[in-house]
Amino acid sequence: MEKKLFCYYGTWATYRPGNGKFGVENIDPFLCTHIIYSFLGISQDGSLKILDEYLDLEENWGRGNIKKFVNLKEVNPELKVFVAVGGWNEGSAGFSSVARDSSKRQKFANQVLQFCLDYGLDGFDVDWEYPAQRDGDFSIDKANFVLLLKELHNKLSPKGILLTIAVAAAESSASISYDIPSISRYVDFILLMTYDLHGPWDDNVGLNAPLYENDVDQTFAEKQLNVNASVHFWVQSGAPKKKLIMGMPLYGRTFTLRDATQTNIGSSHIGPGIAGVYTGEPGFLGYNEICEKKMSDHWLRIWETRQQAPYIVSGKNWISYDDMESITLKSQFVKDLELAGAMVWSIETDDFHGICGKGKYPLLNVINSIVRDGITATTVSTTNSPAITNSPAITNSPTITSAPSTSTPESNETACDADGALIAKSEWLDKDEFLDIIYWSRQVLGIILGIIWGTFYLKGFIALALFAAINCGVVYVYCINFQQIDEESYGGAWELVKEGFMTSFAGFLVTWIIFYTGLHFDSLEAKDY
Q1: Among the four residues 84, 124, 421, 432, which has the most C-beta atoms within 10 Å?
Q2: 3-state class of 327 per DSSP?
Q3: Can you tell me the distance from the alpha carbon of 281 to that of 279, in angstroms, rounded to the nearest whole number?
Q4: For 48, which DSSP code?
Q5: pLDDT above 50: residue 413
Q6: Is the per-residue pLDDT at 160 higher than 90?
Q7: Alpha-carbon gap, residue 380 to 384, rounded angstroms
Q8: What would the 3-class secondary structure string for 112-123 be?
């Protein structure tokens, strides 16, 4: 049976700066057998919710990222595309509320099914972190999670849609949250989060994802905080190996040592370590950030022989991470134990640009070479990436056309077409980036309007017209400075955008007419007859 490689894709990476910015166009669709779009949310009434409407959807000039993601199947028809619901930030309360109520479970399952059919998805991943923990219900979540998965299975399975779950790996957490034999019955694969086993939340420094235990591990619970113990716990608890997918982190955990001379595993620390220039989170660094740091700064790499993983130290900075050597050992571990495959969190923190000299996606390539017997990275370019069709309608089996732009930007300018639409002509301003500018400009102007409104207590037609004028007029104000015409820029992919701009332009004229009319009527209201 072919081994699987599940890759989580954290969509927020599109907002990262510089070489950390990662979008669908950066995904090599041949490096993973299954890619999971992360995340959707869950409401306490049983509704599936979009967490970033602007990024995920096409409506209201959105970027349509989910549809772009599904279109990767046009490049690799063998690829399985999933969406995930949940994640750490989504918490536990929403899941707990839905899982305890049969009508909410049914509503949620129906919405999940329809969403998968509408977008042509191959699977759905449930990432409840965690049943019977955090802000969930400690007494009933464990049993209710089984009922929720059963409801989803009964809806999705007849349509051939796969169901997976991401789960806490270590026994100390998993034994609280999961009825392992029962949940195994209703899912196609179980994705073990065999990472974050140690981090800045601990009293002492430890490895993020050690393969084996360490001599400093004294208690039973401490001895379970490693990959080997976690995997064997799940197998011994009734999870079939043919369904177990072992997670590997493409990131590290950072600490600030209390004493720069005390660097061994178990040394004291005072809190999270340095944040990354791309990810910006204290205590966390993507592998791409770590390998770049190693190239530019002086770091001492130490290999922890017992636990089969490295860490690096510079002064009081201490970083646990996985590199090509430790990923090789983990990949062989998956193969030796005859598990169903591997999973990575997450694809956008590998060295996807190949900046560190080991080629693009060095860690994913290592996993593929062992787990999947030699699959390697392909050359990904925008000419291979499927374009979004001009028709935003979604069917159960979406038809996708490919109409990549072949024109080369000639200058750092923007231009208006004959209809007043703004067209990007520069290397620094592509379609998505321009829509970002429009979106955030409208938000900023909305705040400014609120200040004006509150300060001068505008009322009547003036206030209404001023709001509409600012909301509709952003594009026009930006566009009137340019009168060049470039019908070739981005081709037909801009048609939908141009239509929206025409609407804004018309709205701009209409609202300013109302504005001046409002001045007249408000002046009449002020007269004392």
Answers
A1: 124
A2: helix
A3: 6
A4: E
A5: no
A6: yes
A7: 7
A8: HHHHHHHHCCCE
Chain-centroid distance of CA 472 in Å reads 31
Q: Could you read off the pLDDT of 245-283 as tens digits, one per residue?
A: 999 999 999 999 999 999 999 999 999 999 999 999 999
Could you give the 3-state DSSP secondary structure of residue 284? strand
Which residue do the tokens 């200040």 mark? Answer: 451
- Please report the DSSP string for 227-270 in residue order: HHHHHHHHHHTT--GGGEEEEEESEEEEEEESSTT--STT-BEE
What gap in Å lies between CA 125 and CA 103, rounded to an integer?
Answer: 21
Q: Is the dihedral angle over the CA atoms 14, 15, 16, 18 positive or is it negative?
A: positive
Bridge pairing between strands 317-320 and 251-257:
antiparallel
Catalytic residue among 129, 151, 171, 348: 129
Torsion of CA 86, 90, 92, 94, to 10 degrees: -90
pLDDT, tens digit, 9 for 90 and up, residues 224-244: 999 999 999 999 999 999 999
Q: Specify whether the CB–CB gap between 27 and 364 falls below 8 A.
A: no
Distance CA 11, CA 191 (A): 19
Token readout for 340 is 């169903």
% of the chain residues with pLDDT over 70: 71
Pairing of strands 422-424, 414-416: antiparallel
State which amino acid sits at residue 413: E
Contact 289, 279 (CB under 8 A): yes
CA angle 286, 292, 298 (to 5 degrees): 115
Considering only CA atoms, give the Rg of the chain. 26
H helix or E strand, kind and range, residue 70: helix 65-70
Q: DSSP label at 496?
A: H
Q: Classify domain 4-249+323-371 at the CATH topology level.
A: TIM Barrel (3.20.20)
Neighbouring CB atoms inside 10 A of 438's CB total: 17
pTM score, whole prediction = 0.75
| 2 catalytically annotated | no
User: In whole angstroms, how far apart are CA 525 and each of 41, 319, 520, 521?
Assistant: 48, 68, 9, 6
Indicate the angle between helix axes 102-119 and 141-156, nearest 10 degrees. Answer: 40
Portions of the chain given CATH number 3.20.20.80: 4-249+323-371
| pLDDT reported for residue 374 | 74
